[in-house]
Each structure stands twice: as structure tokens, then as C-alpha cells.
Amino acid sequence: MRTVAGQVFVLQVGVVLLLVVAAVAALVLQSRYDSEREASNRSMAVAESFANAPGMVSALRGRDPSAVLQPLAERARKGSGVDFVVAMTPQGIRYTHPNPARIGKHFMGSIRAAAEGRTVQETFTGTLGLSVRSVVPVKDSHGKVVGLVAAGITIKKVSGAADQQLPLLFGAAAAAMALATAGTALVSRRLRRQTHGLDPAEMTRMYEHHDAVLHSVREGVLIVGGDGRLVLANDEARRLFELPPDAEGRLVSELGFDPHTAALLSSGRPATDEVHTAGERLLSVSHRPTDRDGGPPGSVATLRDTTELRALSGKVDLARNRLKLLYDAGVSIGTTLDVVRTAQELAEYAVARFADYVSVDLADSVLRGEEPPDGVPGVGSPDTVGSPDTGPWGAVAAADGARTVLRRTALSGIRDDGPLYPLGMLIEFGPGAPQARGFRTGAVTVEPFLADFGGWQEQDPELARRIVDYGIHSMITIPLRARGVVLGVASFMRAQKPEPFEEDDISLAEELVTRAAVSIDNARRYTREHTMAVTLQRSLLPRMLPEQNALDVAYRYLPAESGVGGDWFDVIPLPGARVALVVGDVVGHGLHAAATMGRLRTAVHNFSTLDLPPDEILSHLDDLIARIDQDEGPGGLDGDGGGGSEGITGATCLYAIYDPVTRRCTMARAGHPPPALVGSDGSVEFLDLPSGPPLGLGGLPFETAELELPEGSHLVLYTDGLIEKRDRDIDTGLEMLRAALAHPGRTPEDACTAVLDALLPDRPSDDIALIVARTRVLEPGLIADWEVPSDPAHVAEVRAAVARKLAEWDLGDVAFTTELILSELITNAIRYATGPIRVRLLCDRSLICEVFDTSSTSPHLRYAGTTDEGGRGLFLVSQFADRWGTRYTSDGKVIWTEQALPLSKSGKPRT
């Protein structure tokens, strides 16, 4: 029984015996079940037939039911083959029985349900053995139970079918054994022929070798039949060619092989180490036919993956590609001195190369151009506690009590619906977040499998679950470090690419982040310097326009996008209700230009208090710039005699003074573009002013031009940044400015807006200053003018005339003070001056008193001694007037005073 055939025979005998035993058991069980069911059916049928027989009810109600029913019951019992048929009262007293001695006795069985009108059937063991009895009620026409009928039969009377079938069963078993013996002989003969006489041990070893070829050998094996169909493919061959599960049995030409490989497998041609391709793999294929030496038709091919050899030989190409990648990164990242743009360039570059999603988070102080917070690198606090995007400040705390707060500065990905913190959000990272660890310690954090939830999810468990469900499976977090300081962190994530980040990816990401960190730090330092320069520049410019009634003024000031310049403007009220307009431009950019602009603006204010004409003010500014250039240029006073500061090459300026009383405007310019005058009808004229040299060159005088401006006209002053561009000359800019201004009925604000809309470049390379001033005229009724003879006797007349005029203006409250001031000024003019004297009163925002004479001598305030006869007049004037001073004219001088207007009767300031 050690042969395969013997083992098969024993197996078949066991199977036949098992089947015979099962069949006998099933036959016995089935026979018993059928017998019980047949006994139940027969007893019930007999009982119901006898109970429902005609005359049964009348017999039971007769005088002697036993005499009538006993013969009938015995005849029914014998005819049906049951053991007994018993008729009884509803209380169970027998009327009939096979043994007459038991008539009149109580029935031994369950009759309660039958007495209530239901049938009863039960199995019991009586004197004759296992039996079944049925009890059926007898009902009259009204449904009343008038008697009971019971019928019973033993089960053995209906059994015996199984005994008749057993011989047939044993005969079938013997036939099966005979067939098994014959089948075993045939199987033994066929096995010997097909296994070439191999015993089971040899067949086992052959199967083990076959299994190793199929599953363990790391070389592919393909066996192809003579009809060109694939007979066998081991696991390695399936992997190399990505064969479908049902590949065996299909034609080679239908399995997606490379045409060259399919032709070799179908041809049967011998081949040794031929190179074939399978996708991106290189395979070495050896092919041999199998029909030599009497074998079956077909062929066998062995495959070896040689891709690693190609990868080894391509390491040089890989290194060269990596160097090119880093070179491209140097070109693509840090193209501007903008922190946000540089961070976004890093994110976009990495997404296009080796990551699917990239985020860059920086400290808010870095975005402002400041140094990262002091103390532990990367530990900071939000700018506004409890702001909407920070949440509760104490929600997440590191183990040392510090919190890591970063701003999402850049975000890029292959799709826009990634479940990541949005761009611009201020994020408070918990201590377990990779971003917090990297920012605090400067260490690289690698999460190769995010789905493992190794602690990174503690920052936001719900968001972490959505990130993993979205498909993001791997992440690297690298700190942005420059000059030993951590500026922020960059996170690289993969979703579409199935493989996690490897060592090469990590080193490449570190190099990219290192390069980007230097660019971000440079941009941060530039932002800091630019912010400082802009802050300085804006602090030096006027924060609001002074109150005056001569001009309606609107202005615009736009600094350059890269590097602040030295453009400035000013509106300066002057005595006599006049107003000075100034616009200028210092050559160059940066802090030096802004600081020089502040010095020039201060100087203009100081020179304006002297009430000098425009050409003299420009001359003083020219001298000032020359001294600055001398002191701070090469060889200047910089502490080492070397002159380390940047020299000033010049500045341009336009200075204009407008008088609302005479509507006269005097202007002078030093190398500055000419102003534009817009008439009330929309006509535009560029005023032809004498063009002096730029400030700082020296050697040439400046000239003043004077013209009369119509009421309601617009005087437009600007710097060259408005009309000049690299791709546009000045003439084209002036024509564009003319077209933008040529619209009547505009307010100064509307005019400023229209000019900037028309001429403002997309990226201003120079500062732009623009002033639009609409002229006003002081009403004649608010002007009073008198000629005073050079005789003290006429002073009283002037005082009386002034009192009447003040009463007319409802300014009687200041009449006494005004008369006193004018008396002193007129008396001094009569005493010290020659020629005609003129007195003028102006009621503007203040009450202005002016005394004109032909003398060029300026009075000086002094303190008179107790024994001096004079010298107290100007002292009294200075005490009663809010302001006073002297200005010179072409034919003499004017001494002026200003007094505040009294409150109106309603208690409000006068307008």
C-alpha cells in the first residue's frame, strides 16, 4: 500500500464503506420517520371516519350506545388494521373496546382538548409497544361535543420497508467495491505511464522543484506551447511583464509583450542573453525549444532583470541631473527681494519636481522684515492675542511653556482642494507637530507613513484624518535656517506619487530649503531696510494739509516699489493770506535720499518764514545742498577723513506763491518739470517758466516768473516720476498728462484720481508726488485799503476808518486792539520811512493788518529802559497780535500782524 495506486485503492474502499454506513443510517432513520407519520395518519383517519359516520350522534344519545357501537367499532378496527377503536362519553367512559371487559371504564389517555372540540394525537408506549393514538370529538348539529372516538395503532405494524431495501444496498456496495478495484488498476497503470515509474517521494521532490521555479526563483520563466499559447509563467515573469491572472492558455501575441519579445517567443528560435524591454525595464532573455530529444513541441524562455546595471551606469547622469536641478532652483527661487514671493517660488518649484504639496510657514516678524523672536529659536507669540485665526492663546503649549506661532506664507499643490491650512492663516502649532519641533530645534522631521499617526496628528486630529483620507501619505518638514537663525519651516508632502520620501529626496529638499532660506533672509533684510526708509520718508512728509482759504488742494504721494526716493511736497501758509506750494525731487533712492529730502523740506519751511521770494529760496537751497555735498561727500567730515557717505549729485524743486487778494502767482523752478495750468473751460497750458539748473550745481542764478491766475483755475505741480518711464519719454508723458487734465468741472480730488489712472505705471520705479490746487479769490468786501499821508495828524482819521470797517465786519470786539496796533505801525512808518504809506486790512481766517512803506529798513523788537522815551511800540504790537513780521517788496517793505477772529454771536468760530 505504499504505492500511489494502493493508496488510491484504500482511499476508495474507505469512501465506499463510509457511503454504505451513511446510506444504512439514512435508510433506518427515514423508515422510522415514515412509520411514525403513517401510524399517525392512519389512526387519525380511522378516528375521524368513525366519529363522522352517519348515525353516530343518535347512537351516542340512544339508550344503549355500547350495543349499537361495539360491533361497528370492531368491524372498523379489523378493516383498517388499527389496534383499537374506542367510542366514549365526553368524560372518557368507554362505550366500545376490543376487550369487552373494559367497556364502561375510563379511557387511559388525554381527552381534555378533544372534549373542548379539538383533535388530540399523541405517541405512547403501551402493552403492544410504541403506538400512536388519535382522539376526535363527535359533535351534533349545534357543534356540541356529545362523545369522543379514539383510534390507536402500533408503529411496528407500518414498518418493515427498511429490511426489504437492505439487500439492495449491500449489493450496490459490492458493485462499488468491484468498480473501485478495477478503477484502481487502471489508475495505477496510467500513473506509472505518466510519472515514468516515479515513486511518491520522487514526485514530491519534483513538485518542490517546480514550486521553487514558480515562486522562489528570481529569474522569470516562460513556457510556450507549440500552438503559440502560454503554458506556464512563474511569479517573476508575471511581475516583469505585468501579466494578467488569466494569461496561461492565451496566445503570446495577445498578452501585451514587446513586439520583439513576442516574435522571439512565438518563433521557437534559440537565443542567449538577448536584450529586450518590458516597460522601463531591460531584460536579458535566453530562449530554447523543448521538442529536442523527443520532448513536447514548444519553447522555454528564462528572463533576468538587468535594470539595476543600467541604474548603476546612470549614477553619473543622476548626479548631473541633480546639479542641474539645484542650478534651476537657484535661478527660479529668489528672483525678487520679496519674502512672500520667494517662499511661493520654493513651493511651486518643489511641486513641479518631487513633491505633490508644499507649504512654507514663517514667523510674522520675518514677514515684517524683523529678526525672529529672541530666546529659543522659533518661539513667538501672535501679534494679536485672540485674533480670529489664532484661537485661544493658551490652547496649545510646548513642554517648556513656549508656543510656536507661524504664518502660512506659501502653499502650492497639484490640486487646489487639499485639506491643508489655508494661505495667510496664523497657525499655533502644538509641541507634537513636526513644524513646531523643526522650528524650535532646527531638526529635520520625516513622516514616511502619515497613516501610522505617529504623533503628528495631535495638532489637529480631525484635520489629520482628512489629510490621510485625502491621500497624502508622506511628509518631510525642514526648518528654514539662515545665518544660524530659524526663519520658519517648509513641509513637503506626497499624495499622487505612491512611494514615500527617500534619502535622496530628503537631501534634495534640504539643499533647496537652504538656498531658499538665504534668499528669504536677504528679502527679509531688504524688507526691513525698505520699511525703515518708507517710514522715514513718510514721517518727513506732511501728514495733513494746513488750513488756509487761498487754495483748494488735493494731493497724491506714491513711493516707488523698490527703494524709496527723495520726492516731497508741501503747502505752507504765508502772511497776507498767501500760500506757498512746493514740490521737489532729490536725485537717488534709499535712506540717504529720504534723509536729504527731510533736510531740504525743513530748510524750505525755515526760509519761508523769512517771507523770501521764490528765486531767493531756491538760491539758499542750492547753497545748502552744496554744503551737504561738501560735508558728506568724498573727503568730507565722516569721522575718518575718507568720506564714506554717498555724495549728493543734485535735486530739483519748484516753489510757487499764490496771493488770493491780487490773484498773482510768483514761481521759480530749479531743473523741475513745468507746472500745468488748467482753465475753467478745461484748457491745459504748461507754464513757460525760466528753467534754472538743478539744486547743488551752483554758479547760475534762478529767475522768478509772475502771472495772474483766473479764479477757479487749477495749478498742477508734479514730479518726473509721473511723466517719465523707461519706455516713455517726457514729451509723451506731458501729452498724456494734458489729456488727463483736459476736463472742465472737476474737483482737485477728481483731477488727482484721473491723472493717476491715466499715467500711473504698473510697477512705479520712482516716487510720484502730485498736487492739484484750485485757486480762490478773497472777496473784495473783506478787503479794506487806505492811503495815509506822511503826517501824524492823519493817524486819527485812519483809526476811525478802521473802526468803522471793523464794525461793518462785525468785529467790534477787536477794534480797540486793532486801532492800537495800527497807530504804532503807522507812527513808526511816518517817523522812519519816506514816501507814501498804505494800510490794508484783510478779513480771512484771521484779521490781517498790513502797513506798506518805501523803506527797506526792518524794525527790531527791543526792551526799552525805564528812562527811554521810545522803543515800546513793537513790544506792544507783539503782545496784542498773535503773529507779526516783515516782508520785503520790490519798492519797500510790509509790516504785518495777525489777530484771531472773535467768536460769533452763536459762540462758534467765524468762517
Automatic annotation (TrEMBL):
Superkingdom of origin organism: Bacteria
SUPFAM superfamilies: ATPase domain of HSP90 chaperone/DNA topoisomerase II/histidine kinase (SSF55874), GAF domain-like (SSF55781), PP2C-like (SSF81606), PYP-like sensor domain (PAS domain) (SSF55785), Sensory domain-like (SSF103190)
Keyword Transcription: no
Gene Ontology BP, a term: phosphorelay signal transduction system
Membrane topology: Multi-pass membrane protein
Gene3D superfamilies documented for this protein: 3.30.450.40, Histidine kinase-like ATPase, C-terminal domain (3.30.565.10), PAS domain (3.30.450.20), PPM-type phosphatase domain (3.60.40.10)
Membrane-crossing residue ranges in chain numbering: 6-29, 166-187
The PPM-type phosphatase domain, residue ranges: 548-775
Pfam families: GAF, HATPase_c_2, PAS_4, sCache_3_2, SpoIIE
The name this protein goes by in its record: Histidine kinase
Source taxonomy: Bacteria, Bacillati, Actinomycetota, Actinomycetes, Kitasatosporales
